């Protein structure tokens, strides 16, 4: 059986306008063949179906009842006339009127072998035109399948019309549809159970009902839907999607109680205007209508009118006490550690691997200096730090695989640590898949879906009170109830993957989506200073809290921008050569990392001065005088004399030597070397003459992997000019 839209698309524009006028539908776009979707939506609304039944004469209504009793809602004129005990001409006349109204449509169906009827034969095909000589031979045409002309009601209209006509028939004869209770007196649960499965499915999507983890029976599903419709918070969410006129009418009907369409028309005058306000309320089942006592009765069920707010413990996050052991990172730890990482790479000969990674022997030395100092657990975080340092161009590797200062490093060192965190967070949000080790659920595949998932999680976090600890299980329960498909609606997932996949998603939500959220919150969101976390004895995430920086970055209402107040005297230098850093800021931290070693990172971090660190600092360009001058200017107390003496003594051990990679050039006689030195093409290469026949040649660095080796180019140039190398 074809759909209502396919039937309507075969109509002419004039016929479509006639149908729309008969249904008194609210159409905003011009109607033409191939553009009947909006009309089909209006015809699928119960409000307009009831108005249609009210105006259809009794003979046409009887014919519809007869047609709706057929297994597939279609029949031929002769069968209908025999059942109604009228002539075929009278039947065809009734059908013609219903066809003009857009209720009954002509169609052809396959003739069954046992049927005795005149089949509709397709028109014969003419000879093929063009390229007859080449394509003239073809297999014989298959025997056409005999078909017959029938009159049909589209399935979208058939099921609800069947229920409504039965209801209207009982109302006109003062009969009871359900026992001795009128429809308007039924509980909401019973009202919902009377609806067709397709309507329940649409309602479930509108009200965000996801079933009981995919295993709910139809009754359990309807019970959950009834609870949702009776929840005032969810009612507000649905009403916000409707226009103000529908919202106003809903409030009036709650106060007014039971009324009729006739009474409402005294205020709204036309069915079209009333339909704009009432149809959507009926479609969402906030308002109900029924045929009773030969009238169209409208009411708001008592359970909906007296809707209560959902108890806080059902969907709100569960608070927990502050855990004794939690994430040690401060909110600006990532920007701090990036400075530590870059400082180490520039001070050491670190050649990257073939995969462009830092060798593990160096990572084992770097990680203990970072806030995340557990090698096995924080190795991924360290890789993330290196990746960020490359992205923001703080560091790069030259063609020989050695780290060099990037073009943005100087600008970066002028930024506050928290300002750096904002840049890092924005950079990660642009490419959240950069933490590629996360196990991504299927529904988050693709950049758009993944970004929707990230935005949903950040939105949930923005509802948390900063620095208050919450149960992670309650966070998952909130996500499962409110946004099980993250930024996608249930209908979108249903259209993409089908109802079976919906059930699988809900059934395995904690294993897949829940595990993804745990990974995301336990890694990049902690690293970026959004949250702090705590784990249970098994190492699973058990609690979390939103940081002040996290409140700002997730756009929590009322969150203030975090400002780091720099201190003129952030250091205390102790006699045992320890430095206590009370208030970190970028420039000071960068300098400390060059001539101090990390001893302990905490709210007050400890560094230590020693011979090796001072020599390392001098190798980076800090003389003993500059180090002492800076320490004296930043120390809150006078610099201990023994520290000054030690720094000067250690600096005396610093001896400068020059090491270069050079080429030794040797000639057979001094005259040949004299010619090379005097030659304008080679004089720039020869930096020093060691003897009459020996000189040192300095070749340029190889600036590109695809460039020829400098030594090979030099030998070629010698040969071209008559100097042959052995």
How would you explain this protein's 3D organization?
The protein is 48% helix and 10% strand. The chain is built from 36 helices and 18 strands. It has a four-stranded antiparallel β-sheet. Helix 6 packs across helix 7. The termini are far apart.
Question: How are the SSEs ordered, and which strands pair?
Answer:
Layout: H1 4-9, H2 13-23, H3 37-43, H4 46-55, H5 58-68, E1 74-75, H6 77-84, H7 88-100, E2 105-110, H8 132-135, E3 147-152, H9 155-172, H10 188-193, H11 197-206, H12 218-229, H13 232-241, H14 244-256, E4 259-260, H15 261-268, H16 271-283, E5 288-292, E6 295-299, H17 302-305, H18 312-315, H19 333-347, H20 360-366, H21 375-391, E7 395-397, E8 403-405, H22 409-412, H23 417-430, H24 447-462, E9 469-471, H25 472-482, H26 490-497, H27 499-507, H28 513-522, H29 524-527, E10 531-535, E11 541-546, H30 548-553, E12 571-573, E13 578-581, H31 586-595, E14 597-600, E15 605-608, H32 611-619, H33 624-634, H34 641-652, E16 663-666, H35 670-678, E17 686-689, E18 694-697, H36 710-720
Helix pairs in contact: 4-9, 6-7, 14-16, 19-21, 19-31, 26-27, 32-34, 33-34
């Amino acid at each position: 059986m074809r759909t209502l839209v396919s039937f309507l698309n075969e109509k002419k524009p004039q016929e479509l306008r006639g149908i729309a006028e008969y249904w008194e539908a609210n159409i905003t776009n011009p109607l033409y063949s191939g553009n009947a979707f909006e009309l089909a939506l209006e015809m699928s609304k119960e409000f307009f179906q009831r108005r249609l039944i009210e105006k259809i004469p009794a003979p046409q209504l009887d014919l519809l009842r007869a047609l709706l009793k057929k297994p597939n809602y279609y029949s031929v004129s002769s069968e209908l006339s025999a059942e109604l005990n009228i002539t075929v001409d009278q039947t065809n006349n009734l059908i013609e009127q219903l066809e003009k109204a857009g209720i009954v449509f002509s169609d052809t169906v396959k003739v069954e072998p046992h049927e005795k009827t005149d089949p509709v034969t397709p028109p014969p095909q003419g000879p093929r035109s063009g390229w007859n000589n080449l394509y003239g031979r073809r297999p014989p045409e298959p025997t056409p399948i005999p078909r017959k002309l029938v009159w049909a009601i589209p399935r979208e209209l058939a099921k609800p019309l069947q229920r409504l006509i039965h209801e209207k028939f009982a109302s006109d004869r003062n009969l009871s549809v359900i026992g001795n209770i009128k429809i308007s007196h039924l509980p909401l649960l019973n009202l919902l159970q009377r609806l067709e499965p397709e309507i329940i499915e649409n309602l479930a999507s509108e009200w965000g009902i996801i079933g009981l983890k995919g295993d709910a029976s139809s009754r359990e599903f309807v019970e959950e839907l009834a609870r949702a419709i009776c929840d005032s918070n969810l009612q507000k969410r649905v009403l916000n999607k409707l226009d103000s006129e529908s919202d106003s009418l809903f409030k009036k009907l709650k106060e007014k109680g039971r009324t009729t369409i006739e009474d409402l028309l005294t205020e709204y005058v036309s069915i079209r205007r009333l339909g704009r306000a009432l149809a959507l309320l009926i479609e969402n089942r906030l308002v109900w209508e029924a045929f009773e006592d030969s009238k169209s009765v409208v009411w708001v069920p008592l359970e909906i009118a007296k809707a209560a707010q959902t108890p806080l413990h059902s969907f709100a996050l569960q608070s927990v006490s502050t855990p004794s052991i939690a994430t040690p990172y401060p909110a600006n730890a990532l920007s701090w550690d990036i400075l530590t990482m870059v400082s180490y790479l520039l001070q050491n000969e670190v050649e990257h691997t073939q995969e462009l990674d830092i060798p593990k022997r160096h990572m084992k030395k770097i990680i203990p200096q970072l806030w995340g100092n557990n090698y096995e657990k924080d190795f991924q975080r360290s890789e993330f730090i290196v990746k960020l340092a490359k992205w923001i161009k703080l560091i790069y590797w030259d063609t020989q695989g050695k780290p060099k200062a990037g073009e943005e490093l100087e600008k970066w060192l002028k930024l506050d640590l928290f300002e750096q965190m904002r840049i890092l967070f924005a950079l990660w949000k642009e490419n959240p898949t950069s933490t590629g080790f996360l196990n991504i659920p299927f529904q988050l595949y693709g950049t758009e879906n993944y970004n929707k998932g990230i935005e949903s999680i950040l939105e949930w976090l923005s509802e948390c009170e900063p620095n208050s600890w919450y149960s992670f299980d309650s966070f998952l329960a909130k996500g499962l109830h409110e946004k099980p498909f993250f930024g996608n609606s249930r209908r979108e997932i249903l259209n993409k993957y089908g109802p079976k996949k919906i059930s699988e998603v809900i059934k395995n939500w904690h294993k897949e989506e829940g595990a993804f959220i745990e990974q995301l919150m336990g890694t990049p969101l902690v690293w970026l200073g959004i949250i702090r976390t705590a784990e249970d004895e098994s190492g699973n995430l058990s609690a979390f809290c939103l940081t002040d920086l996290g409140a700002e970055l997730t756009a929590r209402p009322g969150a203030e921008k975090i400002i780091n107040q720099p201190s003129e005297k952030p250091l205390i230098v102790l006699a045992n050569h320890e430095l206590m850093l009370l208030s970190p800021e970028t420039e000071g931290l960068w300098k400390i990392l060059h001539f101090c070693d990390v001893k302990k990172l905490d709210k007050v971090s400890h560094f230590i001065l020693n011979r090796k660190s001072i020599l390392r600092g001098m190798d980076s360009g800090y003389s003993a005088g500059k180090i002492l001058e800076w320490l004296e200017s930043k120390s809150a107390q006078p610099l201990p004399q023994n520290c000054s003496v030690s720094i000067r003594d250690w600096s005396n051990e610093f001896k400068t030597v020059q090491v270069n990679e050079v080429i030794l050039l040797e000639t057979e006689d001094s005259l040949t070397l004299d010619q090379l030195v005097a030659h304008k093409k080679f004089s720039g290469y020869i930096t020093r003459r060691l003897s009459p026949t020996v000189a040192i040649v300095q070749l340029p660095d190889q600036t590109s992997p695809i460039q020829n080796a400098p030594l090979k180019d030099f030998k070629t140039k010698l040969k071209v000019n008559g100097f042959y190398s052995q």
